[in-house]
Design goal:
10 helices
C-alpha cells in the first residue's frame, strides 16, 4: 500500500466549519486514492449526540451514523462511524477522519494498516505536536516543511534500525525474545554514554513500523535503562563492542 496521505487541519473541533473542512479533505483523498470508505473516528459514540460536531452535521446524517448506517458521499465512498472501542485494525484503502484528536487516539490510528489517508481535527490546537513531528502532515495554509529528525543522535538511530530488523514489528506487544534484544541494544548504548528521550524513541518506533503498544513498551524499557545511575555491564552481551562500532559506522 502507498504511504497514507496525512492532513492536519489548522482548526480545532470547536470551529464551526471544522466538519466541512475535514470531510472536504477526506473526499479529496478518496478521489485521489479511489477509497471506498471514510471513517469518522471518535473517542465515544455519544460524542456525536452532545458536542459541537453534532451541531455541524445535518440531523439526518447524524441520526444515520448513530444507528450504524453508512452514508453515501459524492466521491462514491461510504461514510461510517467508529469509536476507539470498535475500529478495525485493518482498513483497506479507507480514509479516517479523527475528530477531537489527541495523542491517545492518534496512536491507535497509527496502528491501523492499509489506510488511504488520515484527516486530523485536533481537540486543542498545538497539543498533538508529537504526531505532527512524527509524520510531517500536510497543513492547509502552511508551506510544506522538511521532515523533522525525531532522534538527533545517529548512533542511537542506527541501533534502533538494527533492533527493528530483528523484531517482529507486526506483533501488538513485545514478546520475550524482542525484549531481550531491545534490552541488549539499549544497554550497549547506555554503557557507551548514549541516551535518548523515551518519547522520541516511541515516536520513532511507531513511524518505523512498530505497533503502538510495542513502541510504548520499548520506550518504557529505554527510560528504565537510560536512567540507571551506573552503566550496565556488557560482559554477557555477545559482540557488544563490535555491534556498537557498526552502529557508529552507520551499519546494521
Amino acid at each position: 500500500m502507498p504511504t497514507p496521505v496525512r492532513v492536519l487541519l489548522p482548526v480545532d473541533g470547536y470551529h464551526q466549519q471544522s466538519w466541512d473542512f475535514a470531510l472536504g479533505y477526506a473526499e479529496q483523498i478518496n478521489e485521489a486514492r479511489s477509497a471506498e470508505k471514510t471513517v469518522l473516528l471518535l473517542h465515544q459514540k455519544n460524542i456525536l449526540d452532545h458536542s459541537t460536531l453534532a451541531g455541524m452535521m445535518h440531523p439526518s446524517h447524524k441520526k444515520a451514523l448513530l444507528k450504524n448506517q453508512a452514508l453515501n458521499l459524492p466521491s462514491g465512498a461510504k461514510l461510517v462511524l467508529h469509536t476507539m472501542q470498535n475500529i478495525p485494525r485493518i482498513l483497506n484503502n479507507a480514509t479516517v477522519i479523527v475528530f477531537y484528536a489527541d495523542d491517545r487516539i492518534l496512536e491507535l490510528v497509527d496502528g491501523i494498516k492499509n489506510l488511504a489517508g488520515v484527516v486530523v481535527v485536533p481537540d486543542v490546537l498545538g497539543e498533538i505536536e508529537q504526531w505532527k513531528a512524527r509524520w510531517n502532515p500536510q497543513v492547509p495554509g502552511e508551506k510544506s516543511q522538511a521532515p523533522k529528525q525525531i532522534i538527533d543522535d545517529p548512533v542511537v538511530e542506527q541501533a534502533l534500525i538494527s533492533l527493528t530488523s530483528l523484531v517482529n514489528t507486526g506483533n501488538g506487544v513485545m514478546v520475550s525474545r524482542d525484549k531481550e534484544w531491545a534490552k541488549d541494544v539499549l544497554s550497549i548504548l547506555r554503557a557507551k554514554g548514549h541516551s535518548e528521550d523515551a518519547g522520541h524513541i516511541k515516536s520513532w518506533a511507531i513511524k518505523n513500523g512498530w505497533q503502538p503498544k510495542a513502541a510504548t513498551e520499548l520506550a518504557a524499557l529505554a527510560k528504565k535503562i537510560f536512567e540507571r545511575r551506573t552503566k550496565p555491564s556488557l560482559a554477557n552481551i555477545a559482540n557488544a563492542h563490535e555491534r556498537y562500532q557498526r552502529w557508529c559506522d552507520g551499519e546494521d
